[in-house]
Specification:
The structure is a single chain. It is built from nine helices and 17 strands. With 378 residues, it is of the alpha/beta class. The strands form four sheets. The chain has a six-stranded mixed beta sheet, with helices on one face. Strands 5-6-7-10-12-11 form a six-stranded mixed beta sheet, with no helix packed on it. It has a three-stranded parallel beta sheet with strand order 15-16-17. Strand 1, helix 1 and strand 2 form a beta-alpha-beta unit. The longest helix has 27 residues. The protein is elongated.
Length: 378
């Protein structure tokens, strides 16, 4: 019986303006590389078809070069690719799909459903019931049509849709493009392949979101997979296996420092950063001058290894110890200024004054430390 690879939410053409141009370009390119990985996995697992449940593209205005690169990336699997548009690439009168058709870049083995319909594959013994989005937002359940669509007896019924399963996902996305949670049962589906939710998620044994094949946000909802789906016979329960497709791992980490050893712990974490990591790091708490120097060195090393590293240190206070200040040899007026800034750091009645004092103390002690180091190496 047929074996499928279920994927969705490729979001080709997505831009990442929050990153540097170099990192943004690499992260965007990884999405096309993920498609090449999907094609490779499909060939290696000898699947009968690849199902793409919407949002192939992130926008309707995708450059011609990007279109060609995407469809070139699919060449590693010569079997059928079945695609539907999602909310980002809806089948409008004029869309990314009509652009691709005019360019004649759609491969011959692509079965594209720009309207709701059944696509039968008699040789492979399954029928694809497709519910593409023809506008960005709908308020009716397009998969309701599946209930009345007939398919030949003994042929697997595979539903493909893009939207929000009602009452299951986060409440704030339960508004548009609704899908009934019992659609697979009501429509007698052997499997319902869904897109829209960017994490890999099982709704019920016959209904799955594959998630995006390449992580694209700081949210730990298990992205970075395609689903291998095997169904032994009509009515049999699907056997679903996750196959890893993602290259980059996005992490959002908040690290609070209190005691001296916390700096060493943070340094160990930063030294473990690899080229696959996209890290957003927020530091809070306090550290002494030696801890600050260790942390800055570790951040510099990690920044050179990571795909992307953003570090917010606004909440980290520099609290130099008496030994730190003595080592800086800040005598006379500078010593008095440092002492006053340390006193102001302890003020609780005026948070703004405390924040300014912390910032000033950090700048002053860092400059003194750098001057001392420069003098030692001169």
């Amino acid at each position: 019986m047929p074996i499928f690879l279920h994927t969705a939410d490729w979001q080709i053409g997505r831009q990442y303006s929050q990153f540097s141009p170099e990192d943004s370009s690499a992260i965007s390119e990884a999405r096309i590389d993920a498609v090449a990985t999907i094609a490779k996995l499909a060939a290696e697992n000898a699947v009968d078809a690849v199902i793409v449940a919407g949002d192939v593209f992130d926008t309707q205005t995708v450059a011609e070069r990007t279109l060609r690169k995407l469809f070139n990336a699919m060449q590693g699997f010569a079997g059928p690719w079945i695609m539907i548009p999602g909310n980002h690439d809806a089948a409008l009168t004029e869309s990314v799909w009509t652009h691709a058709q005019r360019l004649e870049v759609l491969p011959s083995n692509l079965h594209l459903a720009l309207a709701g319909k059944v696509i039968e594959f008699p040789d492979l013994n399954f029928a694809a019931l497709c519910a593409p989005l023809t506008q960005r937002h709908t308020y009716n359940d397009l998969t309701a049509a599946f209930d009345g669509w007939e398919t030949p007896a003994g042929m697997l019924r595979i539903g493909i849709a893009h939207g929000s399963v009602q009452g299951i996902l986060a409440e704030e996305i339960d508004s548009t493009n609704p899908i009934a949670p019992d659609r697979a049962i009501a429509a007698r589906l052997d499997y319902l392949a869904l897109g829209d939710w960017h994490g890999c998620k099982q709704i019920n044994p016959r209904t799955w979101y594959s998630g995006t094949p390449e992580q694209d946000r700081f949210k730990g909802n298990e992205p970075g997979y395609a689903l291998l789906v095997q169904i032994d016979a009509p009515g049999a329960m699907p056997v679903v296996t996750r196959l890893q497709t993602g290259r980059y791992v996005w992490q959002e980490v908040e690290f609070h420092l209190t005691i001296a050893s916390d700096a060493d712990q943070l340094v160990s974490k930063l030294d473990a950063i690899e080229g696959k990591d996209v890290l957003k790091l927020t530091l809070t708490g306090q550290t002494d001058l030696l801890g600050q120097q260790k942390i800055l060195g570790a951040i510099s090393r990690a920044h050179a290894r990571a795909r992307s590293l953003e570090c917010d240190q606004a909440g980290l206070r520099l609290m130099p110890t008496a030994d730190d200040i003595a080592a800086l040899k800040a005598d006379g007026y500078l010593g008095e200024v440092i002492a006053e800034l340390r006193d102001r750091q302890g003020e609780t009645a005026n948070p703004e004054s405390r924040s300014v004092a912390t910032h000033a103390l950090g700048l002053l002690t860092t400059l003194l430390a750098e001057r001392q180091q420069a003098g030692a190496t001169a």
